[in-house]
Amino acid sequence: MVTAGPTHEKIDPVRYIGNYSSGKMGFAIAEELASQGAKVILVTGPVALKSGNENILRVDVVSAVEMNTQCHRYFRDCNGAIMVAAVADFAPVLVDNQKIKRTSENYLLELRPNPDIAESLGKIKRKDQILVGFALETNNEENNAFMKLQKKNLDFIVLNSLSDSGSGFQHDTNRIKILDRSGAITTFGLKQKTEVSVDIVNKLIEIENSISGLP
Ligand code: C5P
Q1: 187 alpha carbon to ligand 1 midpoint, in Å?
Q2: Which ligand 1 atom lies nearest to the CA of residue 3?
Q3: Model confidence, pTM
């Protein structure tokens, strides 16, 4: 299973809270897995991308709560999950069913935290399942990513660099580091997201083989 894209958190019938995630990284990973013969469940937030491979079952969602429901629906039947989606951290407590009117007063929007999907899957993950996360850090990158790996019970975490131009949100290229549970860090150069996805899938295969005892 792969999650991709942003989530949109409704404010009223015409407005939402979102983020700039394009879904490109998640879709590239889903395509790479599918092209290697895997059956992929791609749980995606609202994106402008198409998925052509017949090995990909696309599940469209809008909000974090919907993404959480769909991930929990499919996870137990999967060999693992790669959590690429940029899930909104908060959602409005109340969704207005009328368009909110403009006033001259300040408008306060109360937000509640969204479920952490990766963390909840980490709690139910079986020994034969692999869970992979992404991290986008602005400071103390490697330490923060490693703490996230432990907190969410991930097998490895992909650290996106924000300090590189051409890397991360909306770009076609990305520069990543992979941190695993042993503390090993592998650094990769700036590459197309399609090539980055090959590096990530290779790491996945390495872990899968070590779980199943293959060389
Ligand atoms: O804690 P942070 O948002 O930095 O963690 C990022 C990782 O956790 C990503 O793999 C992201 O897809 C996943 N995540 C999630 N549900 C959330 C927040 C993050 O699955 N609500």
Answers
A1: 21
A2: 12
A3: 0.95
